[in-house]
Amino acid sequence: MLKVIKIEEGVFKAPLKLSEKIKSEKELYSEIILDAQRRIRRFAEENKWKDLVSEPFFKGVEIYSEKRDFDNGLRRCLNLHKDFIIPESACAALENEILFSVSKELYRKIYPEGDEPNAFEKLLAHEIAHRLHIRVLEGNEDAMGPIWFFEGFAIYAAGQFEEDKTKLTKTEIKKVISTQDRISYRKYALVIRKILKKITLHEAVMNAFREDFNDWILENVMREP
Predict the structure, then answer these.
(1) Same domain, yes or no, for 101 and 143?
(2) Which residues of the chain have pLDDT under 50?
(3) What pLDDT was estimated at residue 2?
(4) Contact partners, residue 192, CB within 8 Å, separation at least 6
(5) What whole-number distance in Å separates Cα of residue 121 and Cα of residue 159?
(6) pLDDT at residue 224, as a whole number
(7) What is the DSSP letter of 5?
(8) In 84-159, which ranges are E strands?
(9) What φ, ψ does residue 179 adopt, rounded to 5°?
(10) Three-state SS for 11?
């Protein structure tokens, strides 16, 4: 019976299922999965959450070369109806201890905006980061905060869009955090890095449950240095 094997502290090898088309790349994908975990381990260490990565975040990995197969795999895992619509932009998820993803090449095709060095590794790290976030909150998913923040946390943890030096105005920041719709992850990245120049990540995480969290953020972002 296949099982999760500890490779090093905070890094585990889990059973890997690949579509037929990419089975010849198993070694490549296996290493990327390990590197994604190392990326999150470094982030956890930097933020004094090292103890929270001592146990694996997933017990299996499934990577698909076709979007419809990814969608079906995710529906099956979540016991969703076969007609339940998975967003076209959805490329990865970590649900019920299974890490799902489209293939490296398909990710680049579906989400060209995310094309950057180590983009696929960062995609997987992003999904693991959501689970780390939940562990930080001792399992209370309701305390993760609004969309812009919990996605921003995962983007920051995964190191996505680090080279984007675009400057957002205070009005633009307010617009990003005020909308309840999902918007550009690149904008979430810019906002999270902006606010972390004013407050610590720990402060943000521990206040995200507040109903006035957005107002609290704006007060801190807009205050003078």
Answers:
(1) no
(2) none
(3) 72
(4) 148, 149, 152, 153, 155, 156
(5) 10
(6) 56
(7) E
(8) 92-95, 98-102
(9) -80, 140
(10) strand
